[in-house]
Amino acid sequence: MDSSPLDCHVCNKELSSPRILPCLHSVCSSCSPCCSSSTSNSSSCCPDRLAEFLIETSHETAEMCANCDQIRQPMYYCETCQQALCYECRNATHKARMFSAHRLVVAEESARVRGRVTCPHHSEPYILYCTEQRSLACIQCFNERPPEDSIYQLCQQIHDTVLATRDRLVEDLEQTQREAERACREQIQEIVSIMGPIRLCLLSAQILCSTASPLDALQLSSELHKRVQTITSRSVDKLPSVHSMDPIEARTEIAKALEPFLGNKFLYYASLSIDISY
């Protein structure tokens, strides 16, 4: 029977205080020194927040109505009050005008927040997500960000785009070369496979023309002719031409990749002098 992904890699029981090892195995905190995989930093491990979240979610039970302590479908959740309500209590308590601004959603669409909801530095609620640092941010974090962050991010994106395009072009050339080498090997094998029959036909023609009697030559010439026709029908394709990208073509590809960042007019001139040799 397959084990659950939420089971400890060592004791095969549900993870308790899960920790993630450098080898990416999730183990209980008490089992963490027992991982059998060798890594350069096997002694270091940290709490596995993802596994912990999944375990808490799997143990979650349906919330009862905060007003009548019953579970009567359909259930709703007031995100403003942070309380669950059954259908009847929702109609009884949230029809008044004072609750008109409250946000009510179907219970299945709500999710209880288990982590921090406020910034630990400014005690402000999280309202943004920083893609560069991959972390939540409050309005104060946004206002206090360094002014050069956006410029640095743009430069980093341009740098990454140029490198990615260069690597793609190199991979395309290497793929073309591999295909050409494969075609050459196949043609060499084809030529080698017919060398024996060709040599036999040449030897037969030489003997029939020099030492064979006229009667034997007439009888065997048709057979020799058939063999020669069979050999010539096994055509060998022309060797494929190896595509070599010229500098202008490479610069054009780089310019197209940078178009979203720098625009068309600038790249028209820049594409004439971009160096991708680094």
Structure description:
- This protein has 278 residues and is mostly helical.
- 46% of the residues lie in helices and 8% in strands.
- Among the domains are: 60 residues, Herpes Virus-1; 55 residues, 30s Ribosomal Protein S18 (Irregular); 70 residues.
- The strands form 3 sheets. Strands 2-1-3 form a 3-stranded antiparallel beta sheet. The chain has a 3-stranded antiparallel beta sheet with strand order 5-4-6. Strands 7-8 form a two-stranded antiparallel ribbon.
- The chain is elongated and about 120 Å long.
- The C terminus is likely disordered.
- Helix 4 packs antiparallel against helix 5.
- It is built from 7 helices and 8 strands.
- Keywords: Metal-binding, Zinc, Zinc-finger.
- Pfam families: zf-B_box.
Descriptors:
single chain, 278 residues, mainly alpha, Herpes Virus-1, 30s Ribosomal Protein S18, 3-stranded antiparallel β-sheet, 7 helices, 8% strand, elongated, RNF207, Hsp70 protein binding, zinc-finger, transmembrane transporter binding, Znf_RING
Number of strands: 8
Q: Write the element-wise H/E pattern from the N-terminal end onward.
A: EEEHEEHEEEHHHHH
Strands ordered across the widest β-sheet:
2-1-3
Radius of gyration: 37 Å
Largest sheet: 3 strands, antiparallel
Name the structural class: mainly alpha
Shape by Cα distribution: elongated
Strand content: 5-15%
How far apart the termini lie comes to: 53 Å
Q: Helical segment tally?
A: 7
Helix content: 40-55%
Instruction: State mean pLDDT (0 to 100 scale).
Output: 78
| Unreliable residue stretches | 36-43, 274-278
